[in-house]
Amino acid sequence: MNTGPKDAELEGILGGIGPRLRRLRQERGLTLGALAATTGISLSTLSRVESGKRRPTLDLLIPLAKAHRVALDQLVAAPASGDPRVHLQPLRGKRGSVLVPLTQYPGRVQVFKQVLAPRRLELVTHEGYEWLYVLAGRLRLVLGAQEFMLRPGEVAEFDTAEPHWFGPADAGTVEILHLFGPRGDQAVVRAGPSTADPAPPAAPTPGPATP
User: Coil, helix or strand for 75?
Assistant: First the structure.
């Protein structure tokens, strides 16, 4: 049976999803077994989807997009509109926080511009490593039992397996470039503890780090 242009286009899009999923997994250094454990999808199903032997469905693509930290349309690779401009989509949160994604590199370093409003100090840990570059204001960075104060032009980088928190050093906002990458080379803190400033203020009122 002959298929029309739209059917052929659909088959082409679906046929490209499997190789794209395999590339994302390999770029992140994940085995099929590790991805199966993360998503709850069986190893055989993942293998068949990546090889194109099984048609990817929405209930498979959603957990895979979440595991790879990419938007669903990046897995599907919808046809480009032909517009070469980058359309940034700021995400606005409570108390004036703003997050602007600057890159879309699946499995690689992600870059964000952030305006952080005062928020509650709450240490977190997760996989990966981060770089923070202060554009305006003062940033308070807590790494385990240590605290650091960063001014405009100063940079910190650290392994996110270390309990950490960062936010404004005072009641105002702080503007930063925030780079986040998968696990890799060991990173070290580039900023030293503040000696010229008085002790950091008490934790501000609650508020999210990102929208």
Answer: helix
Phi-psi map region of 31: left, alpha, beta (phi>0 left; psi -120 to 50 alpha): beta
Query: Which residue in 139, 191, 129 sits closest to 166, CA to CA?
Result: 139
Sheet holding 146-150, edge to edge: 146-150, 139-143, 164-168
The pLDDT tens digits of the residues spanning 85-138 come to 455 566 777 667 887 777 765 556 778 888 999 989 999 988 888 899 999 999
DSSP 5: H
Q: Give dist(CA 32, CA 67) in Å, integer.
A: 12
- The span from the CA of 114 to the CA of 89, in Å, is 12
Q: How far apart are CA 15 and CA 54, in angstroms?
A: 10
**Could you tell me if 69 and 181 are in contact, meaning their C-beta atoms sit under 8 angstroms apart?**
no
Convert the pLDDT of each residue in 40-66 to its tens digit. Answer: 999 999 999 999 888 888 888 888 888
